[in-house]
Design brief:
The protein folds into 2 domains: 4-23 and 99-160, no CATH class; 26-96, no CATH class. The chain has 4 helices and 14 strands. The protein has helices at 4-18, 74-80, 107-112, 151-157, and strands at residues 20-24, 28-32, 38-43, 46-52, 58-62, 69-72, 81-86, 92-96, 99-104, 118-122, 128-132, 136-140, 147-149, 158-160. Strands 13-12-9-1-14 form a 5-stranded antiparallel sheet. The chain has a 5-stranded antiparallel sheet with strand order 6-5-2-8-7, covered by helices on one side. Strands 3-4 form a two-stranded antiparallel ribbon. It is globular and about 50 Å long.
């Protein structure tokens, strides 16, 4: 299993030279998280990752077929989303303003990086995450971290910036 530092070290050069800048093309729903609240991120592939909320975090739900939810730290949330409207007593709608740099894990890229077709690494929130050929790997501009973006949900969520 690769640490976050190891996977970032492998991917940073190719993300910087070949990565494409993307922005979310759909609004999200979000709400403040409860301290210790555990969220399992479920994509069309199944369980992607699990994370526990800390003080000030937000639960974000993408508007995809899977409706995957995940935790975003409060300081990152305010940099990446703008409030649009209240949806109900729990959820608000937000417009994404952050951008990511990402690339597809093609068989050629996996071979170039000496990675198998499927591999496990530690996500920025310290939970194991599995990535496989056809998925995307990316992170915020500046590449301070990287994470997996499931292929189906990636195309439902992102467009070139």
């Amino acid at each position: 299993m690769l640490t976050q530092s190891e996977i970032l070290e492998k991917l940073r050069p190719v993300l910087e030279s070949e990565g494409i800048v993307y922005q979310k093309k759909k609004n999200v729903k979000a709400r403040p998280a409860q301290l210790g609240e555990v969220i399992q991120t479920l994509t069309g592939d199944g369980l992607e990752t699990t994370n526990a909320a800390e003080e000030g975090d937000f639960i974000v739900q993408n508007q995809t077929e899977a409706g995957e939810m995940y935790i975003v730290p409060g300081h990152k949330f305010t940099q990446r989303y703008t409030h649009l409207r209240t949806v109900d007593e729990h959820w608000n709608e937000y417009q994404p303003i952050g951008r990511i740099v990402a690339l597809e894990l093609t068989p050629a890229l996996l071979q170039q990086l000496h990675l198998p077709e499927e591999f496990i690494f530690i996500a920025p929130w310290d939970d194991p995450m599995t990535a496989k050929a056809g998925d995307f790997m990316g992170g915020p501009e500046g590449l301070t971290e990287v994470y997996r973006l499931a292929r189906k949900e990636f195309f439902e969520t992102y467009a070139k910036a």
